[in-house]
Amino acid sequence: MTTTKGLEGVVATQSSISSIINDQLTYVGYKIDDLAENSSFEEVVYLLWNQKLPNKSELDAFTAELATNMELPEPIIDHLRSYDLSSVHPMAALRTAISLLGLHDSEADVMEEKVNKQKAIRIQAQTSTIVAAFGRIRQGKDPIKPKKDYGYAKNFLYMLNGEDPKDIEIEAINKALVLHADHELNASTFTARVCVATLSDIYSGVTAAVGALKGPLHGGANEGVMKMLTEIGEEENAIPYIDEKFKNKEKVMGMGHRVYENGDPRAKHLRRMSKELTKITGEDKWYNMSLKIEEYIKEQKGLPANVDFYSASVYHSLGIDHDLFTPLFSVSRMSGWLAHILEQYDNNRLIRPRAEYVGPESPEYVSIEKR
Ligand SMILES: CC(=O)SCCNC(=O)CCNC(=O)[C@H](O)C(C)(C)COP(=O)(O)OP(=O)(O)OC[C@H]1O[C@@H](n2cnc3c(N)ncnc32)[C@H](O)[C@@H]1OP(=O)(O)O
Ligand SMILES: O=C([O-])CC(=O)C(=O)O
C-alpha cells in the first residue's frame, strides 16, 4: 500500500460542478472572471444546481424563491437567544443552528430528489439569516426579518445592519459570494460528500461541511488574516512580522494553496475590491499592508495569496465583525456544498478509502491483571 499524505493529487470523484485546470477556475465550464464581473449570486447558485445559466424569468423566480424562504423558524431564533453568544465562535453557533434546522424540517429524512432540491433552497435561504441573526442577537439587538423583494446580498447586509446597504456594499458582498460559491473537491465539500455518500440526510452533510470549513487551514483563514493585519498595525511592521513568522516556522494565513501553483484566480478580484473599499473608508493601510505581505511572501517562498487573503480587508471595510468572516464564507459555500450533495446522491457510491497500518505488529496480549 502507498499513501499520499493529505490525499494530495488524488482524484477522488467525477463532478460537473466546478473545475480547476491550469490555475483557471470555472463553474459548470463558465470562467470565474465572467461570473464575478457579471452575475448575481442567485444566478450562480442556479447555475451550480441546474448546470445551466438561468434566463431572465427563471432567475427572477429563483431569486424570489430564495427570498421568500429566508425567514427562520421561530425555534431557531429562540435557540440563538438561549445561550451566551459572547463566548461562542459564530462558526460553532452556525454549525449547531444548521443542524437544528433539520429538526424543524419534517422532510429532513425524505430522500426524493425533488424534496431534496426544496430543502436545498430552504437551507441556502436560511443560512444567511442565521449568520445575520447571530450577529445582532449577540449585540443585544433583535434579529431583522428578510425582505421578500431584496436580492440575497442586499438582504444579508440589511438583516445584519438593520439598514439599507449602499450599492457598492451590495456589489462587494455579491462578488464575494460569487467568488466563494464552489471550489471543486476542497476539504469541506469533500466532507459533505463523504457524509451523504452513506445516504445520510442533507442536513448532516452541510453540518459536517460547516465544521470542516471552520478550521484555520481552510475557511477559518480569513479571520486569521485580519487578526494578523491588526497585530501588524502599521505598514512598516509588516516585513519584520512576517520574518518572525518564518523564523518560528508559523504559517501565514491567507497564503499558499494545495492546488494553485501560480495564484488563486479569485484573489485578484478581492484585491481590487480591497483597494477600492479601503480607499473609501480612509483605511488604505489594510490594503497596502496586504499587498506588501503578498509580494514579500511570493518573492521569499513562491507562495501565492489565496481567496482568504484579501477577503479579510474587504469584509473589514464593510464593517463586518472579524469572527463573522468565516460564517459569511459558509453562506456562499453552502451553495457549492448543496450542489455537490445533490450530485453525490444522483450517482452515489459509499466513499471509503483505506489506511496503511503503521502501528505495532502482533504485540503479545497481556491480561488486565498483569498489565
Ligand atoms: C479557502 C481555503 O481553504 S484557501 C486556504 C486557506 N488556508 C490558509 O490560508 C492557511 C495557510 N496556508 C496553508 O496552511 C497551506 O498553504 C494550505 C493548507 C492552504 C495548503 O497546504 P498544503 O498543500 O498542505 O501544503 P503544506 O502545508 O504541506 O505546505 C508545504 C510547504 O509550504 C509551506 N507553506 C505553505 N503554506 C504556507 C503559509 N501560508 N505560510 C508559510 N509557509 C507555508 C509549509 O510550511 C511547507 O513548508 P516545508 O515544506 O518547508 O515544511
Ligand atoms: O480548494 C481548496 O483546497 C480550498 C479553497 O480554496 C476553497 O475551498 O475555496
UniProtKB/TrEMBL annotation:
Pfam families: Citrate_synt. Pathway: Carbohydrate metabolism; tricarboxylic acid cycle. Keywords: Acyltransferase, Transferase, Tricarboxylic acid cycle. CDD domains: BSuCS-II_like. InterPro entries: 2-MeCitrate/Citrate_synth_II (IPR011278), Citrate_synth-like_lrg_a-sub (IPR016142), Citrate_synth-like_sm_a-sub (IPR016143), Citrate_synthase (IPR002020), Citrate_synthase_bac-typ (IPR024176), Citrate_synthase_sf (IPR036969). Transmembrane segments: none annotated. GO terms for molecular function: citrate synthase activity. It catalyses: oxaloacetate + acetyl-CoA + H2O = citrate + CoA + H(+). SUPFAM superfamilies: Citrate synthase. The keyword Cell cycle does not apply. NCBIfam families: cit_synth_II, PRK14034.1, PRK14035.1. Belongs to the citrate synthase family. PANTHER family: CITRATE SYNTHASE, CITRATE SYNTHASE, PEROXISOMAL. This is Citrate synthase.
